[in-house]
Amino acid sequence: MAVEDRLPWWRLNADYSTAVGESRNLTLEDGTEVALNSSSAISVAYTQQQRIIMLLHGEIHISTGHAGQGRPFLVATDQGSIHALGTRFGVRQLSDEKDAPIRVSLLEGVVEIAPSELAARTRLQAGEQLSFTRRMLAPVERLNPNDNAWMQGMLVADDMPLVEFLAELARYRPGSLGCHESIAQLKVTGTYPLHDTDKVIAMLSDSLQLQVRSLTRYWVRLMPAHDA
Fold first, then answer.
1. How many helices (H) and strands (E) does the chain have?
2. Fold classification of 3-146 (topology level)
């Protein structure tokens, strides 16, 4: 079987992509800087009339370039588009499921969000974020500064339930990672290195006094000590 036959569709159709646990930084022709998080993919369509980045999978962070001013800058997703007006912002597909919401986090400037099946449009200001689908715009929320820690190779948690923390960590390692339901709501706080997810699991085991159960490196569960 050829390598291409084992790749997911979104990598086959992408101009740029990353594997699980990999990140990548790009500079496009207009000076726009794009950072791709783990398991992410984009296509780029620049013309004389407009600049479009298509998010095919995962999460990206964009700092729009100045050389292309005069041409609209859009991020296209399955759920709708984001029109950037001189900005730094993140765009994340919140799960692998079909019709998964898109979250937009704005650090600087202004963006306008246009769900594909709604007439309504919403503008975000710096320090705000929201999620949307084709037919829904969620309320605007305050930006979570920890969401961009991946750009420094870190995962930051502040009283995050263990089950949510592991779901985030699982984005950076192949296989299945989870925990027993009885410990799912234990709180995790700290800064953890994404380049060594095995080390993070060991840190959690020590700090929360849990046991690690693994069939292989690709199936790992955190368990209460008495159940291990």
1. 4, 18
2. Jelly Rolls (2.60.120)
